[in-house]
User: Which sequence fits this backbone?
């Protein structure tokens, strides 16, 4: 007679919840945001910062329930307070956050109810009770954190640093602002222009996106320099001033390249930086203007996002200086403005040079058609794109036209 093997006990409800926790955490975030977050927010706006906290905190709570141990508010605060602080700094409306938290709690309770067998009602009630305790702890932590951020002296200091940077960029007296910002004025700075390549946002989500970007950039700059860094970044463009003790004390330029890549990944748009190092304080206004123009040049010339220096765009920069030559250059492309297909061909030619097959393929025309369009450009402008010197003239003329168009657009907006 074969011995009977005992039937293995079914894993506890908390154990089964833990097994499915990665999927539950994602659903909690989606359910929490579904009825609360503005529809205009970009996809994944909250994911990188919030999902890891939901996952880690939820696991810790379920493990505590399984061990029949209370999960205290102090333990909750370790997970929740940093995220709540970032939301408060972004000025995410507190009612919106509380509503999202409650919808997330409803989501996990519904999941537990689905998993629980009829014989596990006592365990389901226990899980529900612990979730209510957790919800209370989270709400208290969030409200306390929001209050602390609103009353924090650091908020005033951040605003003072922004005003200090604005004053230095405009060439205004800055000593009193430096004292308010608890910052020592330096004799030399690295001037860093920041420009995001996307249309300005509108709608109820625009402020949330803007504030998050300001916070992310500020923290990245502070990590880069090891100190507080004045900046005027408004979520789309701005200037940062990195102080150093002497003209030779500068940040490794490669770190700005890394910064541009990091910001592009976090903002999900191309980010253009322009860096001028060793700038005397009195030269900041002129240099800031040059740096901002350099980011525009890089964008308008179709360069990829990254950090640019003057040497990277020396010819374009010099040819776009105000004066008679600039006006003459701008006039050379006027005959093309009514023919978008010719402008498209010129841009493709300038980007791909002698590789006409690639250039024609990029604009979806036959190479013979592409060649005809280049001849037509030569007839209308008097400059032959096939000639290296005249091609550079056309490139400069197109850059001038784009800069002037961008300037008119900014002025109108």
Assistant:
């Amino acid at each position: 007679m074969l011995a009977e093997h005992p039937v293995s006990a079914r894993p506890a409800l908390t154990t089964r919840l833990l097994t499915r926790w990665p999927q539950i955490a994602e659903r909690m975030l989606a359910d929490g945001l579904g009825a609360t977050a503005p529809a205009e927010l970009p996809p994944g706006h909250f994911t990188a910062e919030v999902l890891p906290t939901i996952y880690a905190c939820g696991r810790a709570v379920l493990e505590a329930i399984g061990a029949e141990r209370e999960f205290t508010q102090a333990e909750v605060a370790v997970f929740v307070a940093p995220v709540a602080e970032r939301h408060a700094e972004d000025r995410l409306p507190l009612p919106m956050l509380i509503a999202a938290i409650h919808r997330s709690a409803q989501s996990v309770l519904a999941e537990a109810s689905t998993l629980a067998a009829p014989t596990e009602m006592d365990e389901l009630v226990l899980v529900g009770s612990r979730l209510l305790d957790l919800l209370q702890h989270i709400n208290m932590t969030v409200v306390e954190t929001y209050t602390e951020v609103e009353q924090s002296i650091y908020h005033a200091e951040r605003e003072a640093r922004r005003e200090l940077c604005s004053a230095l960029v405009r060439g205004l007296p800055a000593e009193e602002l430096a004292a308010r910002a608890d910052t020592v004025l330096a004799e030399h700075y690295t001037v860093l222009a920041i420009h995001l390549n996307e249309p300005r946002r509108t709608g109820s989500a625009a402020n949330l996106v803007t504030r998050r970007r300001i916070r992310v950039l500020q923290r990245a700059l502070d990590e880069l320099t090891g100190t507080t860094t004045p900046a005027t970044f408004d979520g789309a463009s701005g200037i940062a001033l990195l102080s150093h003790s002497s003209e030779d004390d500068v940040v490794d330029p490669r770190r700005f390249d890394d910064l541009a890549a990091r910001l592009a990944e976090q903002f999900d748009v191309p980010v253009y930086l322009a860096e001028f190092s060793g700038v005397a304080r009195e030269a900041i206004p002129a240099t800031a203007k040059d740096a901002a123009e350099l980011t525009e040049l890089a964008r308008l010339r179709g360069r990829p996002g990254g950090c640019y220096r003057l040497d990277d765009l020396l010819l374009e920069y010099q040819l776009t200086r105000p004066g008679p030559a600039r006006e003459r250059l701008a006039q050379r492309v006027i005959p093309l403005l009514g023919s978008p297909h010719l402008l498209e061909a010129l841009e493709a030619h300038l980007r791909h040079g002698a590789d006409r097959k690639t250039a024609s393929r990029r604009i979806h025309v036959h190479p013979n058609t592409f060649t005809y369009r280049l001849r037509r450009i030569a007839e209308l402008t008097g400059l032959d794109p096939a000639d290296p010197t005249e091609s550079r003239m056309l490139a400069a003329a197109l850059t001038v036209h784009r800069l002037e168009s961008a300037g008119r657009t900014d002025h109108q907006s």
